[in-house]
Amino acid sequence: xxxxxxxxxxxxxxxxxxxxxxxxxxxxxxxxxxxxxxxxxxxxxxxxxxxxxxxxxxxxxxxxxxxxxxxxxxxxxxxxxxxxxxxxxxxxxxxxxxxxxxxxxxxxxxxxxxxxxxxxxxxxxxxxxxxxxxxxxxxxxxxxxxxxxxxxxxxxxxxxxxxxxxxxxxxxxxxxxxxxxxxxxxxxxxxxxxxxxxxxxxxxxxxxxxxxxxxxxxxxxxxxxxxxxxxxxxxxxxxxxxxxxxxxxxxxxxxxxxxxxxxxxxxxxxxxxxxxxxxxxxxxxxxxxxxxxxxxxxxxxxxxxxxxxxxxxxxxxxxxxxxxxxxxxxxxxxxxxxxxxxxxxxxxxxxxxxxxxxxxxxxxxxxxxxxxxxxxxxxxxxxxxxxxxxxxxxxxxxxxxxxxxxxxxxxxxxxxxxxxxxxxxxxxxxxxxxxxxxxxxxxxxxxxxxxxxxxxxxxxxxxxxxxxxxxxxxxxxxxxxxxxxxxxxxx
Length: 491
Known about the structure:
By secondary structure, the chain is mainly β.
């Protein structure tokens, strides 16, 4: 891929019916054994251009496949229980088709296309009103920004005229590779115990909150050693028992990983530069977000430069562990635990996150309307104007009407280095008539034994507790940080 794909800076900005002959070819291919460093010797070989789904259906449960090196274009696979999919080095599942036949029409280049409109889903930033349109077009592997009017077209943009069956671009596509998404997923089913290993999955027109690899309705899927990039919605959708291990997940349209379920492990991945199509991060966008789940672990991931939140568990999450991650340069919070319950956030390196937010929301680690969270042993570097570790109560209610409580949270033995004025604590965004008013002070929340490294000339401190913004001494007078320390430096 080109230099654009290698960049670590986030950008703002049908499948036909199988012919009988293809099935017969696949039946013969099923007898071929593979000798590859990436595939077991007894795996069933599938060459590019052959139907993966035909092999899946013929072979049945528990079959092991080797997807041979090359581009497997516009494949949509519904695995059966226990099936395993390995890729050789250089195996790519590409959800697009090549688009050619462009001709000049006034200021545009136009090609005929029968792209099918997929229902739109999600909330977009004002600067990207077509973010939720899953169909995508690429020139030389670079995704074009989608616009809603032909008259609005500019360089690096595309307008899709569904009614007229045309695609319009502003840039001359002559002698360039142009691709348009036609498949909405690479793998999706309710099967259990599926393994997907050593594959590149790219350019699928997945809807927001759905993965190009979509395990949400299945159980105990393992997704390992994969590259997942340039898909329109989520790169990977996880469900109960999903394991995502050692994957490179980047430049997806909405988010790297999303889903819900029990016993989810996201470990040793790089999750970077997601939300390239401009979804609203406050709706859902960025690195990884899990919701309505129990037993979630985020471990040893490098999560960086996402246009949104880095690691996020939201809505009734329980028994969550965030540990030993590096989380940096994300546009919104680095780690965010929201309207949820018991969690441990420990030994993470979290730095330079949150510049897309304001007030005390601009924090590297934020605990919002949640309880029984322990934040300990983290190393946090805070850029000017931002906050380090924050508790925030909003007086929010659940769908059943119960009030979420910011209580029983402990922030202890973390080291925060501030490049500007120090900012940390617990902030209330409630009115006196709200039952949660004063819960930061009265809810058994504690800050202690933390270290705050501060430049002596960095400006006024913002140590906040409930609605009182104070300095270091005032913070300690409230009974906080009795074993903590503030270290001043001129550098």
